[in-house]
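REQUEST ID: PR-0412
SUBMITTED BY: lab tech R.K.
PRIORITY: routine
TASK: structure prediction, single protein chain
INPUT:
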Amino acid sequence: MALTALSARLEPASPLAAAQRCWEAVVGEAIAGSARPVAERAGVLEVACEDAVWAAELELMGPQLVIALNAAIGAGELLSLRVRADAARRSPRTPHFG
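STATUS: complete
OUTPUT:
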């Protein structure tokens, strides 16, 4: 219990850290396995996806995800998502046909 309290105090109190903590709970296991928040600047959360298909899907879901993330974080700090495909993020199990 003391270790949990200490680690909570040591975590950065940034919108990125808050989004990363609740990401899987908000987006679900499937999306969290293929995309993750990597940066935040001026309320714009940048999400790296393992491929363009995921990036396009999350781009469409962006407004709803921002609402859900802000509700989970307990603040209205996030304004929008910026989603990008990141080949380096691809899992070794993910086939690549290009």
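NOTES: The longest helix spans residues 52-73.
REVIEWED BY: pending
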